[in-house]
Design goal:
326 residues; alpha/beta; 10-stranded mixed sheet; two-stranded antiparallel ribbon; 40% helix; globular; binds ligand PBG
């Protein structure tokens, strides 16, 4: 008898047997595809740092959402780039704001596609921060920001958003958004909370795409220190207590341990955000012929799922969906 006793020897596994004993299978159904919607007519502007990603006016955003839908992707995540920014982020909660209009247009043409809306202020603030800034000190005013975030979420729900996703990291925003949604008659609208959102260099390309780079300082006063994992459990616990329906860890790949630990502390659906920098790194290397894009992307997505994610927000979604079904 052979020793050690391993009858499923890797050297003897056929493709069918490998498939039979495979533990983790990412599927198009796991994905949410982020889309950047920009004000204006017939705009399709490439984002230089994210090859394959564009700022899209509403007509093109609807077409891109349709492409995702046809590939079996259940949802899109909308970020808005408004025509004008100010110091009250008015565009974020304008009933005729860019995300509200895009949500209506996408829901009109594809009622079954889930529209998830980003709830944040940075894209709408002239200074690019995720909250209201106190003039003299430059401090972010947590509680003042909550009111604007809550109004933003309710206006998105009013426009037809299926899920609202606060990405700002102000304390208490899940409770504030929940209360406002309930008061406005959107008791059934779920909240996907960015529970553990780290202050990450990997958001760099996103800030070009969303035109949301802060004009002074950085986001370290409200986003988490990459060194802290236990704190992520505290943050996730608070969001769950405040009424989150889905919790998220972001970015994904440098934080798979955090993802796993959050997975072990909640039975709610768990999302991971495979962020812009993670996308762009693979794209850049692939364009140089330094790695095989399809294999690298599917390996990364498999790793994120293996670590415990139920939902993966990824710019690779359409390509990955094609590869997985092809
Ligand atoms: C806005 C927001 C950011 C991302 C999602 N929502 C950027 C940031 O915090 O600066 C990053 C997403 C990505 O990098 O793909 N608060």
């Amino acid at each position: 008898m052979a020793f050690p006793q391993q009858r499923l020897r890797r050297t003897r596994r056929t493709s069918a047997l490998r498939g039979l004993v495979r533990e983790t299978r990412p599927s198009p159904q796991d994905f949410i595809y982020p889309i950047f919607v920009v004000a204006g007519e017939d705009v399709r502007r490439p984002v230089d740092s994210m090859p394959g990603i564009f700022q899209l006016s509403i007509n093109h955003a609807v077409a891109e959402a349709k492409r995702a839908y046809d590939l079996g992707i259940p949802g899109v995540l909308l970020f808005g780039i408004p025509a004008d920014k100010d110091e009250a982020a008015s565009g974020a909660y304008d009933p005729e704001g860019i995300v509200q209009l895009a949500t209506r247009a996408i829901k009109d043409s594809m009622p079954d596609l889930l529209v998830v809306t980003d709830v944040c202020l940075c894209e709408y603030m002239s200074h690019g921060h995720c909250g209201v800034v106190e003039k003299d000190t430059g401090y972010i005013l947590n509680d003042v920001s909550l009111e604007l975030l809550a109004r933003t979420a309710s206006s998105q729900a009013e426009a037809g958003a299926d899920i609202v996703a606060p990405s700002d990291m102000m304390d208490g925003r899940v409770a504030a958004i929940r209360a406002d949604l309930d008061r406005e008659g959107f008791e059934e609208t779920p909240i996907m909370a960015y529970a553990a959102k780290y202050a990450s260099a990997f958001y760099g390309p996103f800030r070009e795409a969303a035109e949301s780079a802060p004009s002074f300082g950085d986001r370290r006063s409200y986003q988490m220190d990459p060194a802290n994992a236990r704190e992520a459990l505290v943050e996730a616990g608070l969001d769950v207590e405040e009424g989150a329906d889905i919790v998220m860890v972001k970015p994904a790949l440098p934080y798979l341990d955090v993802l796993r630990r959050v997975r072990e502390t909640t039975d709610l659906p768990l999302a991971a955000y495979n962020v812009s920098g993670e996308y762009s790194m693979v794209k850049a290397a692939a364009q140089n012929g330094w790695l095989d894009e399809e294999r690298a992307v599917l390996e990364a997505l498999t790793g994120i799922k293996r670590a415990g994610a139920d939902i993966i927000i990824t710019y690779h979604a359409p390509d990955a969906a094609r590869w997985l079904s092809g």
